[in-house]
């Protein structure tokens, strides 16, 4: 009979005490697993949101603000760029290094509740853009390395020459109940208290992407420009000395959607697009296929003194954010959970140590049967390790069960997708750490076992 | 086979001289011999057996089993020697409560450094009439069955010497003779020397060689 088996039998003999000790360890480890996995998945997803964007160009200001507003639809984008700067990418000086440029105009929101109910807390950002966003850009890569392309669950992409068409992210469609063929009215501003704009016809609903775009409404940029308060006044246009191409395309194959020659409303009646000088963009997503393209573009844009523009690589910005803010927070959480596990280990110590007087007889019997002092010491240490590992394994299972249980809530609240089998390599470190902790916890009772006076304990 | 020479043992007393417990000038037991040491309770019988088993260290003298002087062995070697060559039957059986009868016998084989022999453990339980009780825990067994299990455990490693400390003291009268017959029978069958201590005349009368502890232990002789 091995020493492990003897230790296991000892655990069984003190079933209730052992179960409670295992439970306290399991709960500690479950919390730890929860923190590790949720943090890892959150970081991965937060980073992967940004993975679909090679370069973001926006008005000079904080690069974090630009990334947060463009990628995560958080905060405000205060610094706009003239439309002519977008044209620099489509058919201007940056066109050679650009594969696709997609303009973003932000600042409106969509409240699915009726106007008479007043502003609600369920507000979704409206992003005015071109159909290229879904036709030509990807949103990251799959585990097998293939690119993730936008797909439509229902309907189709909006058309560039139909001003008032819109596409809904999967969460917006699910929460609002709006279907293809129905219309929505964006609200001016992001507070939800602004005026309701003209209606847009929903032509498509995206499949879930697992990114913040699931929670956004995408409308045709041309329609957005025609809404109240979205055009620059003639006076402002005259004050701004604009450069860059305007009018018909300057190159044969422009790298983005340009204002159509004829624009239609939803009744297929021709309407007049907003003139280019009166247009602004919040940011521009730029895809460059040249390996050095993003670097050269970033360098050229950021050094150009004539333009109040900046180019940022969102992945780097997000990495800095995670390192600077989320990283230390994770350390604090980990320290707290480690403390919980240490407390659980101490409960193992207390449980075994308290039972030492009753088990000293069993130890003496084993010694009388020929067990050495180190053997009885190892039996006690094995029991401590078994208690700890049983608790640890149960804790890992429990932790993942809790994650699976909470997954729908977390996804609804934070947009983070979790699954039961979402493992993090750090979890493997839990097992050896528990063995070390259990050995330390078992040391005191093990020494007590080592010192057992056999003749006295046999009585 | 067993030879004790000049064995002395005393205990320290707070604020007083050491209290002598054992003074055995010589005691020898031959191979396969069955010897009873008689003495009243509290006169050092258990201390003598613990000293022979190496569970208690002695102050002076020599305790040799088959030529090996246990007093000269380091503790770990003494433990290993005890596991392999000495069987011990206690007055209070000392079965581990969380283990079945079979597991208690296997436990007796665990510390020899060799793989426990399940077949022998089962065979021993059969020989003590408990073949059908192997998977029962001590609490589910009668005291007679518990002591028979303890006998099987003591013989698990084919010991040279079996020490029995009042093996019938806690057994009901109806089963006492059964235990004595069992001990004598299996020791004879396996050629195991037996040293049995008891205060019972009924038990001692059945043995050819009976030593009075008062004669063996000079400490008691001086006090008489």
From TrEMBL, chain A:
One GO CC term on file: plasma membrane
Keywords, alphabetical: Cell membrane, Membrane, Transmembrane, Transmembrane helix
Keyword ATP-binding assigned: no
Segments forming domain ABC3 transporter permease C-terminal: 335-451
Listed transmembrane segments: 20-42, 331-355, 376-409, 429-450
Domain MacB-like periplasmic core residues, every copy: 18-224
Subcellular location: Cell membrane
PANTHER family, A to Z: ABC TRANSPORTER PERMEASE, ABC TRANSPORTER, MEMBRANE PROTEIN
Name of the protein this chain belongs to: ABC transporter permease YtrF
Underlying gene: ytrF
TrEMBL record, chain B:
InterPro entries membership: AAA+_ATPase, ABC_transporter-like_ATP-bd, ABC_transpr_LolD-like, MacB-like_ATP-bd, P-loop_NTPase
Keyword annotations: ATP-binding, Nucleotide-binding, Transport
Source organism, top-level taxon: Bacteria
Annotated PROSITE patterns: ABC_TRANSPORTER_2 (PS50893)
Membrane spanning stretches: none
Key word Transit peptide present: no
Gene Ontology CC annotation, any one: plasma membrane
Stored Gene3D superfamilies: P-loop containing nucleotide triphosphate hydrolases
Entry-linked Pfam families: ABC_tran
Span of domain ABC transporter: 2-224
Keyword Manganese: no
GO molecular function: ATP binding; ATP hydrolysis activity; transmembrane transporter activity
SMART domains: AAA
Protein name: ABC transporter ATP-binding protein YtrE
Organism in which the protein naturally occurs: Botrimarina colliarenosi
């Amino acid at each position: 009979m091995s020493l492990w088996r003897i230790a296991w039998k000892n655990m069984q003999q003190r079933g209730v005490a052992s179960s409670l000790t295992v439970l306290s360890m399991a709960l500690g480890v479950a919390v730890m697993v929860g923190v590790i996995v949720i943090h890892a998945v959150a970081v991965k997803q937060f980073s992967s949101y940004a993975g679909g964007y090679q370069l973001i160009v926006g008005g000079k200001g904080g690069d974090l603000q630009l990334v947060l507003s463009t990628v995560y639809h958080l905060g405000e984008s205060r610094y706009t760029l003239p439309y002519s700067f977008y044209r620099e990418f489509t058919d201007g000086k940056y066109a050679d290094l650009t594969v696709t440029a997609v303009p973003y105009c932000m600042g409106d929101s969509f409240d699915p509740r009726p106007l008479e109910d007043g502003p609600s807390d369920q507000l979704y950002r409206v992003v005015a853009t071109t159909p290229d966003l879904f036709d030509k850009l990807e949103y990251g890569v799959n585990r097998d390395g293939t690119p993730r392309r936008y797909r439509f669950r229902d309907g189709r992409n909006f058309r560039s020459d139909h001003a008032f068409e819109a596409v809904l992210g999967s969460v917006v469609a699910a929460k609002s109940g709006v279907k293809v063929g129905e219309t929505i009215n964006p609200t001016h501003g992001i507070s939800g208290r602004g005026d309701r704009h003209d209606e847009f016809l929903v032509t498509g609903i995206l499949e879930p992407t697992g990114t913040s775009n699931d929670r956004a409404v995408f409308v045709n940029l041309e329609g957005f420009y025609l809404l109240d308060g979205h055009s620059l006044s003639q006076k402002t246009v005259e004050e701004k000395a604009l450069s860059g191409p305007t009018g018909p395309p300057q190159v044969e194959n422009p790298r983005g959607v340009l204002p159509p020659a004829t624009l239609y409303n939803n009744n297929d009646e021709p309407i007049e697009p907003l003139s280019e000088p009166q247009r602004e963009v919040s940011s521009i997503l730029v895809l460059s296929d040249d390996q050095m393209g993003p670097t050269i573009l970033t360098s050229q844009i950021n050094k150009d003194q004539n333009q109040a523009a900046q180019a940022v690589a969102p992945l780097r910005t997000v990495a800095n954010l995670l390192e600077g803010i989320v990283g230390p927070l994770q350390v604090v959480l980990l320290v707290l959970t480690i403390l919980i596990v240490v407390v659980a280990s101490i409960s193992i110590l207390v449980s075994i140590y308290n039972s030492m007087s009753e088990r000293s007889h069993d130890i003496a019997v084993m010694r009388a049967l020929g067990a050495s002092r180190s053997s009885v010491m190892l039996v006690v240490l094995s029991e401590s390790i078994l208690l700890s590992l049983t608790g640890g394994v149960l804790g890992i299972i429990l932790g993942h069960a809790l994650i699976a249980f909470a997954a729908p809530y977390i996804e609804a609240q934070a947009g983070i997708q979790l699954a039961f089998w979402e493992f993090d390599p750090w979890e493997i470190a839990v097992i050896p750490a528990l063995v070390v902790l259990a050995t330390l916890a078992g040391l005191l009772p093990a020494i007590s076992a080592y010192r057992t006076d056999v003749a006295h304990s046999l009585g | 086979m067993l030879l004790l020479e000049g064995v002395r043992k005393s205990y320290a007393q707070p604020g007083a001289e050491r209290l002598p417990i054992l003074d055995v000038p010589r005691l020898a037991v031959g191979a396969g011999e069955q010897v009873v040491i008689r003495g009243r309770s509290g006169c050092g019988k258990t201390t003598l057996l613990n000293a022979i088993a190496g569970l208690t260290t002695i102050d002076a003298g020599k305790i040799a089993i088959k030529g090996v002087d246990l007093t000269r062995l380091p503790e770990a070697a003494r433990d290993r020697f005890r596991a392999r060559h000495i069987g011990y039957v206690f007055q209070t059986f000392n079965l581990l409560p969380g283990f079945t009868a079979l597991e208690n016998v296997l436990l007796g084989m665990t510390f020899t450094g060799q793989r426990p022999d399940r077949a022998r453990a089962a065979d021993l339980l059969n020989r003590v009439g408990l073949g059908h009780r192997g998977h029962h825990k001590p609490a589910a067994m009668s005291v007679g069955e518990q002591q028979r299990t303890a006998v099987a455990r003591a013989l698990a490693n084919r010991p040279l010497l079996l020490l029995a400390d009042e093996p019938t003291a806690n057994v009901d009268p109806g089963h006492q003779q059964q235990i004595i017959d069992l001990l004598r029978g299996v020791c004879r069958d396996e050629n195991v020397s037996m040293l049995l201590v008891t205060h019972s005349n009924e038990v001692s009368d059945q043995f050819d060689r009976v030593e009075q502890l008062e004669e063996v232990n000079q400490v008691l002789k001086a006090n008489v």
